[in-house]
Amino acid sequence: MENYRYVIIGGGIAGVTAAETIREHDADGRIALVSGEPHLLYSRVMLPAYLKKKISRDRLFLRTRDEFVKKNIDVFLGVRAERLDIKSREVALENGEGIGFEKLLIAAGGAPRTWGSPELQKWIYRLQTIDDADRLDEALPRIKKPLVIGASFIALEFLEIFAVRGAAPALFVRGKNIFGDMLDREGSALLEDNFLNHSIAIYYDDRMERITEYERKLAVLTAEPRVIECDALALGIGISRSLGWMRDSGIEIGKEGIRVNEFLETAVEGIFAAGDIAEYYDSVSGRERAGGSWTHAFLQGQHAGGSMAGIRMPFRRVSSYSITSFGFQITMLGDCRGRSDAIVRSDSSRRMYARLCLDKGALVGAALINRFEDKAHLAALMETKTPLEKYRDKLIDPSFDIRSIAIVG
Fold this sequence. Notes:
By secondary structure, this protein is of the alpha/beta class.
């Protein structure tokens, strides 16, 4: 069995950033990076650009084998962790080998949720890995009428990919709004109008009852009832965290992932988690939550790597995610889920919208449509917990410049 000072499970942006951060602070400690994928680090957020033919496939890759060699980081590709023994400080791998550690980072991320019967899988497309993107790229020339399922950023990425590549996509949403309760009906309707202007049909507040294959197509029968014909199903329904291999290890699992403290360390000393798989206490929103964006995974990897190397500082960042969808710029900041105290700033003539979510008078989340210029200031208001009660009446006015609010703290 090989023994290392640092073992990192997960070869995505969180794991790689952690390994490189550790090396910046510890020039000699042995580092092992174990990845279930057969590929070196690539940009998941650039997969849509690759599928839209805006960039070539080779530009997705962010590291080479030589770069890891120069930093003296041992990389194991295409092998998954199978069991964690916290007493012996060992990770058992699926190839039968074991790897020992002094400190461990779990940054294994997740995989798209299981969906559909085995017979349907040939019709189903996902967008989590480069292999998913390659499979979709090969199929796109023959896909003409896809149905995108979900109300997430990935769902919106699918819509634009299909449209750019000459297909006529439709969107199926189980709930009443795009992005669920992060937007109200007004914000969702603004996006809906833009999609309709691009000839994208939307089916709301419905559920699928049966999917039948016929004449190289699918017929989707819904509870409404209605029948939706399509020739591909694209899933934008979120991920399941890769937790099964550690459920009996003694590591505490929360509602969404591995529970960690403000240093991204579990209750077991020397074992950390970062990225999509980490459930951390977010002091900005006041909730325990898991992240889900590329930038947040990078920041957590950087922070966890520093913590593992002895740089102990609490993790305090405002999570954010942004895309451009059919000309609309959409940004989510912080945590708007399930928030009843919200201020909506809407200007339909300029196709601008903001939903600002508050807790005890402080900003904890924001959903923005075509208001990207407010992002940095809103994030600063969240980080400092600047009181906003006295600005409520002004904030409702969409012409009020939110950047005029002074940052407190």
